[in-house]
Amino acid sequence: MATERLNSILNHLTPNKSGLSAITQKNPDDVVITLAIRTPLAKGFRGGFKDTKLDYLVYSLLKKVIQKSNIDPQMVEDICLGNVNDGKAAYTIRAAALAAGFPNVSAASSVNRFCSSGLKATQDIANQISLGNIECGIAIGAEMMSAGGDRIAQPFHEEILKSQDAADCMQPMGQTSENVGKDFDISREAQDRFAAESYQRAERAQKAGWFDDEIVPITTKVKDPKSGEEKEVTLTKDEGPRWGTTYESLSKVRPAFPDYGDRSTGGNSSQVTDGAAAILLMKRSTAMKMNQPILAKYIGATVTGLAPRIMGIGPSLAIPKLLGKYNLTLDDIDIIELNEAFASMAVYCINTLGIDHSKMNVRGGAIALGHPLGATGTRQICTGLSECRRQKKKVLLTSMCIGTGQGMAGLFVNEVL
Question: 115 an active-site residue?
């Protein structure tokens, strides 16, 4: 510990020659990840979690956090839930945490920045640790899309609607995808070919067992839609991957949003999904005192905004902004998890940023795995760090587009090589 403290002082006094050397240094005050786990991702409305409520899924995952980490729950000072669709999420996380075994003194809150909510929760906990407000916390992202969507029932006030950008915040996500396809000439073929690759990568990863170290089994009850009979089931694998999917099969799928265009389909758009993921964070010095395994170092995250009607291209703005803050380029990044809300935005981001597709979404993305809105930000961390461990790579970048016209990106360094 004394050596690390001395190195920390010397690092502050000695200018770093590169951004990469700066982010890979180890200091006692670093914010580190000691556990990153997730539930299986289940098909919305007809999958294994279709009859499960948000509170039970969050409760079940928090119990797994305690079991897998062997941490004393008393050490966890705050828990933040990223969730989009449930207006009572703040009640849910507090009650679920208490029931799971965390004491009264472990606080809880919820955040909602649409599809980045899980990453936002991670950032919030990490920032508290970095500032010395807490020593240890949990970020969890969870979404039960089977419970319904988050569309605004009524338009905004007439004064707000005088702004076209404000009015565009009400555009359905499918419409924004078609806008990206048309505005930037992302063809239906390009989108279908990208989607086919996502499915094929997910199939390969699932068959090889690559997801096994990030998924924890969840036992719940499922009701038969015909008989109404309930039975207990244990989910262990993602339900989204469709083995055998090809470009040819996807090219036959009808457009999903014919009122707005003909390029986005149910085959090249993210799936409606239920699931959750949790990240345990603490100071490096705290992890060492508690003999917690250090999986990775949290570096930072940032957010940006853009025109709501083309919200999908948000990562193309958030990624350069984040990399610029740490004097990095995409060449310094080993693994990228970019949320595939729609193939239109994913293809745009690859082309615009010059991303090496071979290191992006190596296990497939939201098109094949699903996109449980509030959980995606934490799910990407689980999957990305697992892939870094498998390949013995260091630097992970995560990013996603955000409804109403935003983009977010996060940066992590794997320490299990």
Answer: yes
Residue 401 designated active-site: yes
The one catalytic residue in 80, 136, 349, 371 is 371
In terms of Cα–Cα distance, which of 235, 44, 60 is closest to 148?
Answer: 44
Tokens of 361: 């979404």
For residues 414 and 293, the answer to whether their CB atoms sit within 8 Å is: no
174-215 tens-digit pLDDT: 999 999 999 999 999 999 999 999 999 999 999 999 999 999
> Is the pTM here over 0.90, yes or no?
yes
d(CA 357, CA 246): 18
Which among 22, 8, 11 has a CA at the least distance from the CA of 395?
A: 22
- Per the CB < 8 A criterion, the answer to whether 67 and 305 are in contact is no
Give the residues across from 139 on adjacent strands.
Answer: 80, 279
Query: 78-82 and 136-144 as β-strands: parallel, antiparallel, unpaired?
Result: parallel
Active-site annotation holds for 80: no
3-state secondary structure 178-190: HHHHHHCCCCHHH
d(CA 208, CA 277): 21
Active site residue: 80, 115, 136, 349, which one?
Answer: 115
- Give the phi and the psi of residue 163 in degrees, each rounded to 5: -90, 125
Instruction: Name the nearest CA neighbour of 372 among 279, 283, 274.
Output: 274
Tell me the C-alpha distance between 40 and 33, whole Å.
Answer: 20
